[in-house]
Structures are given as C-alpha cells and as structure tokens.
Specification:
Blueprint (H helix, E strand, L loop, with lengths): L2 E5 L8 H14 L4 E5 L5 H5 L11 H7 L7 E3 L4 E4 L8 H5 L8 H6 L8 E5 L6 H8 L5 E6 L2 H20 L6 E7 L6 H13 L13 H5 L7 H4 L4 H16 L8
Parallel strand pairs: 1-5, 1-6, 2-4, 2-5, 6-7
Antiparallel strand pairs: 3-4
Helix pairs in contact: 1-11
Length: about 260
C-alpha cells in the first residue's frame, strides 16, 4: 500500500526539505520504493539529490498544469530514490492555477497513476500557505509530517498551520490528519530547546516523534554535495537521528524492516 505524506510548515528554515530528502533516502535504504515530490519553486529538494534545477525541463510545474507526473520523474540509481523535480518556473503556477477548475486537487490527480509504483511518496511543500501548499495538503492521503525547529519563534507558526489544516479539512479533505511532528535543530545545551520540546508535546499529545534531529554541521553541509546524510556522513549524529526517525515511521506504519 502506498503511503503519501506531505511535509509542511509555512516557516522557512525548519529542516523541512532536509527531512524530506533524508527520510526518503533512508526509506529507500530500507528497501522501500520512494518518490520525493519537490513542490517548492526554490527547488531545494531537487538540488539535494544532485539535480541542477537549471537543467530541469519538466517536473511539478508541468504535472500541475498538464495533469501528468509520470513523464517527469527522475531516478537517482545510486540512492534508489525517485524525484519529481522542481524548477523556478513553478513560481508561476500559483497565478496560473487560480483560474483553473479543481485547482486544489491538481497534484493529487497528477500523482494517481504513480501510486502503485511506490511504497512512499513524500511531498516537500514551499514555506508558505498558498495554493501550492494547499495542493500538497489535499494530496496527503496518509497525513502531514510537520518539522518544527526547536526555537521559540517556530512555535508561533504552529497555530496558523493548524488553522490551515482545519480549513482544508472543512472545505476540501475531511480525512486530512497530522501523521506526526518532527523536532529538528535541537541543541541540548540550551534550556530553550528543551522547553520547546515540552511545549510541542503539550500541543500535539501523542503525535510527536520520539526521534529528535539535532543541530549538525554535517546535515548543513550535505546538500551542497547533492547528497543525503546517509551517504555524505553516515556515522554522524544527524545520520543516526534520521535513521532512527525512519525506523520509527516504518514501525508506526506497520512496515517490517528487512534491510538492517
């Protein structure tokens, strides 16, 4: 059964793309067929797997406007990870979709022919709550994953995000749910980070992953090499955290890990 998760947080710099890529890479390492959908015009997820966004001739923009995603999917054979890439042209999709019928369901429909090909589809949304993100939420058949940076300002945006999820439930997708909150950029040396962990758990009881991603120089470096942390620095603390997070997700989904 294909699981479709959308990674969303309207605040930038919380580790959303980092989580999408590294979670996808570890899922692939554990023998899952994975597709990462880059729904951000900045195309960071595309760059993180070594694809130059300037060379992308088809991807999420064409899938949203044309209704088909399959022709534009790329496979990174080294990572065993598939990607529906993005490019700067996606920035125009917000405007171009406004006049289109069923504009909020464009991504969901474009992905439907791909569902049987993958075990996991991870959708990386832009740091905003616009039409692209709404498409990502409507396509999130199995829920949203919310990366939250362990800093005070990150908490302020959670209320707005919760309201958006409620609006999408009311108007478009009543079954939309939060699959889990992922705590990122944790610095154990600060009391603030510990306080944020407690506060997030209070707001989302039973929905916060136990695996916490620490601040890590290696995690910050990996994208510049076009590699996930599992390849760039597999023994680093960041790699260990994402591996643990992936195992926690798989266990929660009832998926047995054969490749240990």
């Amino acid at each position: 059964m294909t699981r479709i998760y959308t990674l969303v947080n309207q605040k930038g710099g919380v580790g959303k793309t980092t989580t999408a890529i590294n979670l996808g890479a570890y899922l692939a390492q554990f023998d899952q067929r994975v597709l990462v959908v880059d729904l951000d015009p900045q195309a960071n997820a595309t760059s993180c797997v070594g694809v130059d966004k300037a060379t992308v001739t088809g991807g999420t923009y064409e899938a949203l406007l044309g209704g088909a995603a399959l022709p534009f999917v790329l496979l990174n054979e080294r990572l065993k990870l598939s990607l529906l890439p993005s490019s700067p042209s996606l920035a125009g999709a917000e405007v171009e979709l406004v006049e289109e019928l069923a504009r909020e369901t464009r991504l969901k429909k474009a992905l439907e022919p791909l569902i049987d090909r993958y075990d996991y589809i991870l959708i990386d949304c832009p740091p905003s709550l616009g039409l692209l993100t709404i498409n990502g939420l409507v396509a999130a058949r199995d829920g949203v994953l919310v990366p939250v940076q362990c800093e005070y300002l990150a908490l302020e945006g959670l209320g707005q995000l919760t309201q958006t999820i409620q609006r999408v439930r009311s108007a478009l997708f009543p079954e939309l749910k939060v699959r889990g909150v992922i705590l990122t950029m944790f610095d154990p040396r600060t009391n603030l980070a510990t306080d944020v962990v407690k506060e997030v758990n209070r707001h989302f009881p039973g929905q916060v992953f136990k695996s916490i991603v620490p601040r890590s120089v290696r995690l910050a470096e990996a994208p510049s090499y076009g590699l996930p942390i599992s390849v760039y620095a597999p023994s680093s603390v960041g790699a260990q955290a994402y591996e643990a997070l992936t195992k926690e997700l798989l266990k929660g989904d009832g998926v047995r890990i054969h490749n240990q």
